[in-house]
Write the structure tokens for this entry.
Amino acid sequence: MSAAGVKVELKPGAYKSGLKPVWCPGCGDFGVLNALYRAMAQLQIEPSNTVILSGIGCSSRLPGYVKTYGFNGVHGRALTLATGVKVARPDLTVIAVGGDGDGLAIGGNHLIHSCRRNLDILYILMDNEIYGLTKGQVAPTTPTGDKTKSTFWGNPEPSVDPCELAISTGATWVARGFSGDMKDLTEMIAAGLVHNGFSFLNVMSPCVTWRGDDQFKEMKAKVAHLPEGYDPSRRANAVDYTREKDKITTGILYEVEAPSLTDQLENIKERAMAGNGVPTTKEMLSRFYPKF
Ligand SMILES: Cc1ncc(C[n+]2csc(CCOP(=O)(O)OP(=O)(O)O)c2C)c(N)n1
Ligand code: SF4
Ligand SMILES: [Mg+2]
């Protein structure tokens, strides 16, 4: 709103916090941040009704760069924070962000339960296939055989496909993007924000420092968009585009409508307040401690 009470159109630049990103020049996370500014402007998202939550990592610095409410929590807990905010204030737009280490290693458990709960939250996972902030250790998405600071002879473990994990654990909107494709990424972030339910966006976002300039070139060469006429409502279709070796298929892989937990909160609250025959804590305790 302007001082005169007239609604002013928010341009992408209006969402900048004024804090200058400290990411390395060329880091893929710049692309994600810019696409987020654009998507928010496209939907005219109200900054004062928005909260962005993160854990720890280079990518987890993102909330500081957006002019909304935000919180940079502890490692792996972006989704626990987002869950708490959404349950307490279902009216707010809630976005969780972070890296592959934050969201799939230490925070992997929370991803599973966020997917199955289906709260109306957008989760953007910036996937550089490495722990960037702590200087290049192996991550759950590091491809098998790749040398990192902690897998000097090559990663012996199979890697996880984050989209496959999200689909199989109940997310109702799952997409994959590339930080080097601004237009596509902006559309996907906007679509994830509009979806009613848990939206999971895996963005391939190169780390030029610990994975080298080649990671950007290699990712770019592999990117292919979903074919024309693709039907995202079928789980089997979506799974066809996970665990791909020579391709990174981008687009909305999976999208279904299902009641979101956010929609049920009011009902749960009403039932709890009404009691519905459930004994109070005092009544329960007095069964065991009659003098209570
Ligand atoms: C409890 C805890 N364990 C470990 C760490 C160290 N640590 C900080 S960030 C990080 C991994 C970051 O990797 P990722 O989430 O992929 O983010 P990126 O830096 O690659 O964007 C680790 C292991 C920590 N801060 N707290
Ligand atoms: S270390 Fe990697 S992930 Fe971190 S800011 Fe630099 S390029 Fe980005
Ligand atoms: Mg990472």
In short: Residues 29-43 form the longest helix (15 residues). The chain has a mean pLDDT of 95. The chain has two domains: 12-258, 259-292. The radius of gyration is 21 Å.
